[in-house]
Amino acid sequence: LLDKNKNLHLGKLCKSVYLNNPITFSLLPNAIVGYYFDRFLLNLFKEWRNLIDSDLQARQGHALVSDNHFRLFWEVPVYYRRDGRFEVLYNGAEFSLFAIPTRDLTLFGPNGKFVKDHPSVVLRNPAYQFLEGVGYGKRGDILDAHILPQHAIFTSEGQAITGISEKEIPYVLAFLNSSLAQYTINQYCGQHKHCGYINLLPLPQTSKSLKEK
What we know:
Structural class: alpha+beta
Helix content: 10-25%
Mean pLDDT: 82
Shape: elongated
Strand order of the largest sheet: 1-3-2-6
Number of helices: 7
Largest sheet: 4 strands, mixed
Low-confidence stretches: none
Strand content: 5-15%
C-alpha cells in the first residue's frame, strides 16, 4: 500500500478497512473504539459539550413493581386520586414523539409510604421527582422523548431530564427527537438507552435567541 516515497494509497484499501488516529477515540463516549464513526460525528464530539456538561443531566427514576404499584387512571376512584395515595406515573411508552397520554398512576403515598417497604423497590433521585421536564423510554430501537408533566414520578424504565427551565424543555425535546440525536446514540449503544448513554450525547451549542426560537 506504500509507494517508494512511503505515501499511502487509500484507493487500494478495501471497504472493510478503516484508518483513524487512535487519539480520536478518547473524544468518544466511554472512549469507545468507534473506528466506524463518520467524520462529522467525530467533530461533534470534539466541538460540542455533551448533555451532562450542559447541565441537562438525564437521571434514572424509582424502581417500582408494576403488579403491585401500577394502575390505569380509570381503575382508581377520583377521591383516592385526591387524598395523596396515588401519583401520576411516567414509565416510558410505545414509540411516540413529543407527547404521550398520561394515563398511568402509581400507589405511592407521602414520601413513598406505600412502596418503600417492598423488597424490590429502589427509590432514586427524590429531589428530581415531581418536576416538569423531558422524559424518554429507556428501551427502543429509536430514541423518542416526551414532555414530562409536573407532579409526575419517573422510573427506571421511563427516565427523565428534570430540574431545567421551562424555556429549555422544548429545546431538549426537539434535540432528543431529532434524527441527529437518534443516529448518534445508536452508534454507541443498543436498545437500552440508559441515562449514562443519553448524557454523553453532544448538544448543539446555539445562541440564546436561536434556542428560544
